[in-house]
Amino acid sequence: MTLISFVVPAFRVQGYLRECLDSILGQPETDIEVIAVDDCSPDASGDIIDEYAARDQRVHSVRLPENVGLGPARNIGLDRAVGEYVWFLDGDDWLAPECLTEVAERLRGTRPDVLLVDHVRTHWNNTATRSAMAEVFPESPGADTFRLRDRPQAMHLLHTAWNRLVRREFLVELGLRFAPGWYEDVSFSYPVLMAARRIGVLDRVCVNYRQRRAGAITRTRGDRHFEVFPQWHRVFHLMDSWGPATEALRPAVFERMIWHYLTVLGNGQRIAPELREAFFAQIAADYERWLPPGGYPVPDGVEGIKHKLVAAGRWRTFSALRAASRARDAARRRARTARRKVGPVTRRGARFTRDRLLREYYRAELRRPVDPTLAVYAAYWYRGYSCNPAAIYEVARRLAPGVRGVWIVRRDRVDAVPAGVEYVVAGTPAYYRVLARARWLVNNVNFPDFVRKRPEQVHVQTHHGTPVKVMGLDQQRYPIGAGRMDFAGLLRRVDRWDYSVSANSFSTQMWDRAYPATYTTLEVGYPRNDRLVTAGPDEVRRLRAEFGLDPDEQVVLYAPTHREHLPGYRPPFDPDQFVQALGGSGRLLMRSHYFHDRDRRPGQPRDWERVRDVSGHQRVEDLYLVADVLVTDYSSAMFDYAVLDRPIVLYTPDWEAYRLARGVYFDVTAEPPGAVASTFADLLDLFRTDAVRSDAAVKAREHFRARFCTMDDGRAAERVVRQVFLGEPGERSAHC
């Protein structure tokens, strides 16, 4: 018999599900199965599950035809489980490395009905908070098992399904199921403990309980939080049906119920102000209904006062107490903030007088009406006219002629703006004016921190590449690559987004976890790649002629990415040796990352006739179109170039160091878009032998394109314009 059946329900967890499944499947203990249940999720969760099931026979995919909710989805997984124990793990949480070895040893050694394990709350800012395990059990219980009546303090551990493993036959005999609705853990976790004859505790952190910044029920306001009441009613009805066997536990269970109710009420992110009095009234009603005849252990201090106010039904006094507490906490926060600001304000002095005057002008412009016809575009920190914003701008001029588009550019990039394109120079009064009054703000990076998005404004974040390296909040786990990144500031900027343009499902999944906020995802393909689809042979011939390239020459574009953790790094690449390996008809175009725009020359070749530095060329799409082969490393260029269905070579001399220091979302050397070379000698051999076009390379490219390029059909920019500028509904998936 399989030892552990993991039941993993999935609904809107596409950004986290891979980490969850990897954490299970990568454990040393392999006597497991995973029943992953797609609860008709509107995102790519179901596709991710199918992908894992296809490559690992321990994973079983269940796709539900309609959304049933977390509790019923767990029941469906339970019905399919065959393991001796069942572990209900949520799709956005993950296991600690190697924890399953100790879990399995304890299960095999003691055969408990329930095994409680420890967890940490892992927050979006990469901090972790320990559970109450050490407080509940100051001395480790060891391997001994017990009944709840002997150690009722076990109820003070968090009442979730995922911090306990339950013997499957015991659960089936008990007939306990998850109830529908929110707070479904309550009516499962407490009854399981009350009914168990053998409870074990493993004081080893096994679960990382993700505290999501956006999308979690605990951060969702609404009246559905009233569903906590029937869940607790179910607990007491079960106790009544079980009779004297659980009567001694009633006072402790009652105390937990009131504690939980007050916790929900005290969370301002759950209960809206207009619902608070009604919620309190229901607490008071349940207090009177379920109060044990002999009373219960009332907590000390402020918590005890709250319990007494509930018992008396004194809402006004309870509300006033809460308001006073919140005012005191707010005053303390303001005092701390004021102390932090004194130093920096004093140091800035008068050096930024002009900037302050311009910011005052900006604030004045914010009080003027938004221009309903104005759209502002920017790319790469105002480096010029390019990328996804440029593609959207061009389509908007055609489909939404009533929208006036204005670009923001640096003063040293004014000459790169095409004729007929209106622009303002960054830092000028006109710059502040358009930022304050534009109806639409379109950028492939974030606007500066001072920009305040008004309610009438629409911010479109287009991004500028499918991510190989980790981005956003995920960089917190790789401090070497992240440098001194201000993650709190990043999230303030992300909160301005209304739309996030995604090139493919994989990008959508990664953006969900890297940039958690309430924006709407436009999974439409990359607008800048439209041109790669629509450009015909005549345009390619014209571009090659402009670059001075003969039609029969083999043109290779070398475009490595930069290394944030290694300033000035250049891969070991000799242009002269490379063009010799290409043969007499080969030409090499070299393009450094845009971060190196003040340090252009990536090499110093002797043969400048056959090698050209094209780093300063504004439109990278031109370079893709003229190139017969792309050589890159971890750059998002590979995803764009794959649209053309031409050979791609990955040159990865520092893959292991890059992966460990910078962090990556997937192993591009294992799932490449073509041939792979880890040394320069290997790279030369690939071209000398024409292995860049081998059957294996072609098959790898086909698989890569099927995964990443299906949305690039030449209409991505049109889809953005129609939905964002014209208000037309987006194209919907047929799933669910």
UniProtKB/TrEMBL annotation:
Pfam family, one: Glyphos_transf
Protein localization: Cell membrane
CDD domains: Glyco_tranf_GTA_type
MF terms (GO), sorted A to Z: CDP-glycerol glycerophosphotransferase activity
Keywords, ordered alphabetically: Cell membrane, Membrane, Teichoic acid biosynthesis, Transferase
Ranges where the Glycosyltransferase 2-like domain occurs: 5-171
Keyword Membrane attached: yes
InterPro entries attached to this UniProt entry: Glycerophosphate_synth, Glyco_trans_2-like, Nucleotide-diphossugar_trans, TagF_C, TagF_N, Teichoic_Acid_Biosynth
GO biological process: teichoic acid biosynthetic process
Record field: transmembrane: none
Any GO CC annotation of this UniProt entry: plasma membrane
Membrane topology category: Peripheral membrane protein
Alphabetized Gene3D superfamilies for the sequence: 3.40.50.11820, 3.40.50.12580, Spore Coat Polysaccharide Biosynthesis Protein SpsA, Chain A
PANTHER family documented for this protein: TEICHOIC ACID GLYCEROL-PHOSPHATE PRIMASE (PTHR37316), TEICHOIC ACID GLYCEROL-PHOSPHATE TRANSFERASE (PTHR37316:SF3)
Annotated family: Belongs to the CDP-glycerol glycerophosphotransferase family.
Protein's name in the database: CDP-glycerol glycerophosphotransferase
Organism of derivation: Micromonospora violae
